[in-house]
Amino acid sequence: MNRTDRLRAILDLLAETGRVEVEEIVERLDVSSATARRDLDALASQQLLTRTRGGATGQSVAYDLPLRYKREQQAPQKLAIAQAASELVPMGAVVGLSGGTTSTAVADALGTRADIAEPSPHHSLTVVTNAINIAAQLIMRPQIRIVVTGGVVQSRSYELVGPYSDVVLEKITMDYAFVGVAGIDPVVGPTVRDEREAAVNGLMARRAEHAVVVADSSKIGRRAFATLGDEGLFDTLITDDGITPDQHRAFEDAGLRVIVARI
């Protein structure tokens, strides 16, 4: 494992519980204590964690790492999920996209669809998003109308959060909302780590005819701090073929349609 891969792996470990110890890095990544400490110091210098005696803790938004550090994690799975999501969307639809790397991959898939890019006197698609990076990504597609919610920018995830978002979302309806999450559990449902993000994403889901969780299989079984809404708010989960038969069955028993994107 090279250094770049090690740093990403350490950030993944940190995201699981909010803290990581040198001994855990040594055991999980098969490196020396000196290497583990140097890697932690390197991440601390980038303000991605706070060093402690014997390890590190996440900063207040360490779970919401900059997209440049997250976008390659589970990349094949996210691309497959994004393609499956895009295939659900008919021409002329209104689509909500939350922030996050999987939703960004969905935006990519929609933005490169040949039918949507076809010249037309009318917009081929309307995208509603609270992620300024997604808006910037799609603005070069003239056939896609972009609606951006109001709010305060979270600098590490490029998402707009806060009550200003409600002003826009409460006045529109959507055909589909694709929402990325930090974890999804068949009992608790989808969760994220920030209550402000949960509020915006939950409202986006409520304003859509079909609310869809887009989550790679590494998110299955994880529970984060904030739930997104009441049971039954989401009707579909799109994940990759890393989902186990038992997990698949548990989500279907909970009332979710499960679409498995093959890699």
From TrEMBL:
Query: Which superkingdom, per the lineage?
Result: Bacteria
- What is the protein name stated in its UniProt record? Alkaline phosphatase
Domain HTH deoR-type residue range list? 3-58
UniProt keywords (A-Z) are: DNA-binding, Transcription, Transcription regulation
SUPFAM superfamilies given in the database record: NagB/RpiA/CoA transferase-like, Winged helix' DNA-binding domain
The record lists the organism as: Microbacterium mangrovi
SMART domains, alphabetized: DeoRC, HTH_DEOR
- Quote the PANTHER family the UniProt record gives: AGA OPERON TRANSCRIPTIONAL REPRESSOR-RELATED, HTH-TYPE TRANSCRIPTIONAL REGULATOR SRLR-RELATED
Indicate yes or no for the key word DNA-binding: yes
List the signal peptide residues: none
UniProt GO molecular function: DNA binding; DNA-binding transcription factor activity
Q: Which InterPro entries match?
A: Carb_Metab_HTH_regulators (IPR050313), DeoR-like_C (IPR014036), DeoR_HTH (IPR001034), NagB/RpiA_transferase-like (IPR037171), Tscrpt_reg_HTH_DeoR_CS (IPR018356), WH-like_DNA-bd_sf (IPR036388), WH_DNA-bd_sf (IPR036390)
